[in-house]
Amino acid sequence: MLPSVTSLKQLLSNSHRFLIITHKSPDGDAVGSASALYFLLKNLGCQVEVVLPDSPAPNIASFLDGTDCLFYDSNPQLVEQRFKSADCLIGLDFNAVSRVGDLQHLIVNFEGKRILIDHHTEPEDFADVLISDVKCSSTCQLVYECFEEMGMLHALDARSARCLYLGITTDTGSFRFPSVTSKTHKIIASLIECGIDQWLIHQEIFDNNSMDQLQLRGFAISEKLVLLNRSTPSLPVGYIWLTRTELERFNYQPGDTEGLVNTILSIEGIKAGVLIQEKKEGIKMSFRSKDDVHVNQFAKKYFNGGGHVYAAGGHSPDSMDVTISRLLSLIHELFIP
Ligand code: 5GP
Ligand code: MN
After folding, report:
1. Does the structure show a pLDDT above 80 at 2?
2. Number of structural domains in the chain
3. Quick one: which ligand is closest to 121's CA?
4. CA–CA separation, 61 vs 38, rounded Å?
């Protein structure tokens, strides 16, 4: 067993009240790993609670059913009480404390033990036990592997398996990214053996689009997509930029632009895609790439972000125009070997 998994097992057996948290704007892997770990620990007889900075997109919200999850943005006082009564905090699917938004101060001031289970590059050093595997497809896969190594897979049931399936599916682009290995598929096989209907989970995640969402995507691709290689062949990059007014025109809801940046990468010859969105809290950037182009260092160096080699995010304090100009002046750096 890896030394960190031994420490994880010890901390799990020595703690009494667990609090699970994940990052803001939680995606499928965040929601899936938080709810799966909740059910796994419950099945082992532990006292567990889940706290999220804000609510997820509607197509993945049902995976939190049964977890009695609290959202900090709508219930700050109750969340603060939960932090006071817990003795072990388990962070999932984030590498930097800033990723939890307004919950940050509660993590920093937490008086009990901290565990972090994550697969992003360069995790910050704030946990007593860090389980980090940047090669792992998803935090959900990592949670499964931890329970396997600890000899605790008897806690896995259909409810927790369904949640792990959500995170592995969404973080692998439905099993197509290089992070997918034979191990990933073996884990999926064992989740299906737990009795989940994987085809129903796919329908729930991917066949729940609203008309507004589809029309926003159509608008973004037909009107707001710029391909830099048309004028500069050495820059196989596309970007989409969406202002607040445009998002509002299509009645934007959380999750509506999820996956949009990947459609840029589906264009023949394109190796990097950037989605720039003007949100209430400022300009949010999403980077995706393939082959020999890596976006995490670029996002970290220039756009206050980070993430994975082929999928990273960040933000910009500038206006949309200034952000795009900066991006265009720096983007060639992605192609310096
Ligand atoms: P997305 O573009 O889908 O928001 O994020 C892509 C990946 O980058 C995700 O794994 C996400 O956790 C990470 N990421 C997104 N935004 C940020 C950020 O502001 N800081 C860091 N460190 N990672 C981010
Ligand atoms: Mn993830």
Report:
1. no
2. 2
3. 1
4. 15
